[in-house]
Amino acid sequence: MRSCRTPSEAYRGFTLVELVISLVIVAVAGVTLVTVMAKETTGTVPVEERARAVEAARSLIEEVLVCAFEDPEGPPGSFGSEEADRTAFDDLDDFDGWVDRVPLGGPAPAGASAWLERRVEVCNVSPDDLEIEAPPGSSDFKRVKVTVPTSSGPVLLLALRGNR
Ligand SMILES: [Ca+2]
Ligand SMILES: [Ca+2]
């Protein structure tokens, strides 16, 4: 059976209700798209911050590890900094307690600093168990730890050095 429409019914267009429903669907899709894009955009900033923190920690720990195991002029087993300033650090434990800041070098996450703080801890460790801290200057193994706090948690690099 065929319906008979008058020409005015066939070309009547959208009703107001259909138009409103269409606009609501477009608005919901738009809000969803903007929300997803915002999450992706904000999600890359902490990743970049973390990557820069890893690089900052890596460069500092490499700088520490090229130093002598203990002070070249000090008595065997000496520990701590004997130097007046950072430019004169010449052994691993000169860096114990050292803290500096380097520029983030990129966009900072909301509320985060544009600087990265790097903290160094150096300690002697037991030759029997390299995870156990030993009294300063008491062993031929030292652990160097560099920590860089970020908005998504600290970046931590560890290295062990023997006295050779
Ligand atoms: Ca020194
Ligand atoms: Ca020293």
- Unique ligands: calcium ion
Helix content: 25-40%
Major beta-sheet overview: 5 strands, antiparallel
The parts where pLDDT drops under 50 for at least 5 residues are none
Cα radius of gyration in angstroms? 31 Å
Number of strands: 5
3D shape? rod-shaped
> Can you count the helices?
2
SS class:
alpha+beta
**Average of per-residue pLDDT values:** 87
What's the helix-strand series? Answer: HHEEEEE
CA(first)-CA(last) distance: 99 Å
Strand content of the residues, in percent?
A: 15-25%
Describe the structure.
It is a single chain. With 164 residues, this protein is of the alpha+beta class. The chain has helices at 7-10, 16-65; strands at 99-103, 115-125, 133-134, 141-148, 155-162. It has two helices and five strands; from the N terminus they run H-H-E-E-E-E-E. The model has no long low-confidence stretch (mean pLDDT 87). Strand 2 (115-125) and strand 3 (133-134) form a beta hairpin. It has one domain (7-162). Bound molecules: calcium ion (CA) (2 copies).
Secondary structure blueprint with pairings:
Layout: H1 7-10, H2 16-65, E1 99-103, E2 115-125, E3 133-134, E4 141-148, E5 155-162
Antiparallel strand pairs: 1-2, 2-3, 2-4, 4-5
The structure holds calcium ion (2 copies).
Residues 71, 82-83, 90-91, 94 line the site of one calcium ion.
Give keywords.
21% strand, 164 residues, 2 helices, binds calcium ion, 5-stranded antiparallel sheet, alpha+beta
Condensed summary:
Helix content is 33%, strand content 21%. The chain has 164 residues and is α+β, with helices and mostly antiparallel strands. The longest helix is centred in the N-terminal third of the chain and has 50 residues, at 16-65.
